[in-house]
Amino acid sequence: MKQKIQGLLFITAILFISCSTQPKNAPENIEDCFVVSQLVPENIEWTTIESGFQYFSHKIKALNTTWHVVKIDLKNTSGFLQIRMLPDSKNINPVDFNSFIQENDLIVAVNTTPFSKDNRKYSLMGVQVENSNYISMPQERLSALYLQQNPINSKITAHIISQKQLPLKNDSGCPEYIIGGYFQMIKDGEILEYKNIPHSNTACGISKDERFLYLFAAVPDFSPADINGLYYKECALILQELGCYNAMSFDGGKSTQMYVKGKKEVAPYFKRKVPACLGFSVLQSK
Known about the structure:
single chain, mainly beta, 5-stranded antiparallel beta sheet, 4 helices
């Protein structure tokens, strides 16, 4: 028995050492650390996964982290763009991410709104609105992705807003989808300061002309403790370089999950079930 315990301790130690270098420390002068050329390759070659959906990924070898991004054309007219999200009712429970994907035949999906758990009861930290129905109420200090969809041509208008702006005036009468997140990382082209914690990240961004929505995830290649990854500012620099004029973070850490059709699922070594997800599919025109 003693030998077995010693063996298990030895294996655990080896795994801990091999799975990650020690977490990188925030530099005294943080501006010196973030170099776009080290985070984003010179040439970005997008891969089309469906009409209106393009994908790119890049491994940052020095950080042992890979980031993934899907660029969605919100004005795509090749089919009817469909928004799928959870929770879609006030019954908030963690779900299997793969089931959410399969049940909705999604092209891309990410985890979204942060949550808390109290005595086995889950609640969202911030707003969630599905088809103009409020599922969870806003928290003023947090941000949100605001989507409004034209029911005739399926084109989507997108904004990143502060939750304290809600409810917004909706003169068009088009259905609203509001997905709560954490904090805005880029506002009107400028990167905002935020605490620097390296771990897995999920985020979204919008181009200046609001035509393109970017869904982003960055995960360490092997880090069971999720102590490596990208700082928020590194994520912001990447999104800015990709073309985002506004961007915000979703729930990160072990909640980080991303699905891209035809690609391997993106998730940290130990992922957890999450109660909030966002996905897109296309109903092809006949």
